[in-house]
Amino acid sequence: MSTDWNTRTKLVHEGVRRSQYGEMAEAIFMTQGFVYPSAEAAEQRFVAIGEDEFIYARYGNPTTRMFEDRIAAIEGTEDAFATASGMAAVNGALTSLVKAGDHVVAAKQMFGSCLYVLEVLARFGVEVTLIDGTDLDAWRSSVREGTKFVFFESVSNPGLEVIDIKSVAEIAHAKGAMVVVDNVFSTPVYTRAVALGADVVIYSTTKHIDGGGRALGGVVCGTKEYIRGTLEPYLKHTGAAMSPFTAWIMLNGLQTLDLRVRAQTENAAKVAEALMASDKISRVSYPGHASHPQHALVMDQMGAGGTMVTFEVAGGKEAAFKMLNAMEIIKISNNLGDSKSIATHPATTTHQRLPQDQKDELGITSGLIRLSLGIEDARDLVADITKALAAI
Ligand SMILES: *Cc1c(COP(=O)(O)O)cnc(C)c1O
Asked: Cα separation of 56 and 163, whole Å?
């Protein structure tokens, strides 16, 4: 494949492995195993596996490999490993790097399940320091000689706080720590975390990459040394592989990723404007709007505001629920990045598990709603929001 291709071309053509039939669409190799032409060939494959050879779908499959090659080409990394879900990717990426006694630093503004993985590591003797990821001084004073990795979401869920990948990577690398970035909200369309200094980039492909809310999936991108030397041994023996069918869904998702994410971003900007105009909303956070506290960083790191908007309904949970229940096009659910617009009430769903003091610290108030904008017509979305606001 060509490194000269631009993103949209790579999203459609990169990584294709055609069989002897020359099929146009990516084939689904729905097989767990592979037949060896001889016992000697089987022995040889276990000694050294070739580029186009596979042993067992827990560690590799042609359809899954097409997806891994395509996302690695987009991300600009040497390799990638696809997993059964985004959380399998986060768990694999982090757990494969540490042992008891190691130290790691992570941003506290994070998806509840990512925080849970860090709690599990702490249970096994890893020292976990949680800090305010937007505070560069906090990174400077927490990362120390011997810190194994730093971990953060480049745009936090659900607060939409943006973490400065380049600056944090400089701080981490000066102490020899690896930089692991969950880039789900920003998507590869807007942020190439590796170009900014990240060593490992994680996606929940369940979100924008599928884009249709059909399948769970995840992927970890990094150097060949990290992916094959550190991550693959952990994942292949613990079993969180992506199925070939899911990989096929994700390959199809990637083809339209750039088009969808840009259309969703246009919708997000228009919906954010409509929310800002209402006196029933006390706060709107949209990274693409000049009022976002890190707007300059957003423009530098992402170049656009992304597909998510969070806002706070004045009147707490009761008013927020009224608004949610009055929406017709925008569905109440907890996925994001979907072609369909989705509204979530984090305090009672995705972040329900967190104790109240942690919710307060993260700004997950009872009136907070997280919107993931889809690809519908913006006029219909704004009308849906306007109607729902009137119902409060
Ligand atoms: C959804 C999400 C995950 C987890 O992905 P799953 O595919 O649901 O397991 C991890 N990080 C972020 C930021 C997410 O939004």
From this structure: 38
pLDDT of 186-210, one tens digit each?
Answer: 999 999 999 999 999 999 999 999 9
Q: Is the CB of 155 under 6 A from ligand 1?
A: no
Domain covering 259-390 in this structure, CATH number: 3.90.1150.10
Q: Is the CB of 337 under 6 A from ligand 1?
A: no
pTM of the model: 0.96
Domain boundaries, the chain: 7-255, 259-390
Contact predicate 237/203, CB 8 Å: no
Structure letter (DSSP) for residue 162: B
Residue type, 45: R
Give the separation between CA 106 and CA 179, rounded to whole angstroms.
10
> 7-255 has which fold?
Aspartate Aminotransferase; domain 2 (3.40.640)
d(CA 167, CA 139): 9
Between CA 325 and CA 336, with CA 330 as vertex, the angle to 5 degrees is 115
Cβ–ligand 1 contact at 206 (below 6 Å) = yes
Mutate to test the pocket of ligand 1, among 200, 206, 351 (most ligand atoms within 8 A of CB): 206
Q: Which atom from ligand 1 is nearest to the alpha carbon of 205?
A: 7
Q: How far is Cα of residue 55 from the mean position of the Cα atoms in its chain?
A: 29
- Summarised one tens digit per residue, pLDDT across range 78-88 is 999 999 999 99
The number of the ligand 1 atom at minimal distance from the alpha carbon of 88 is 9
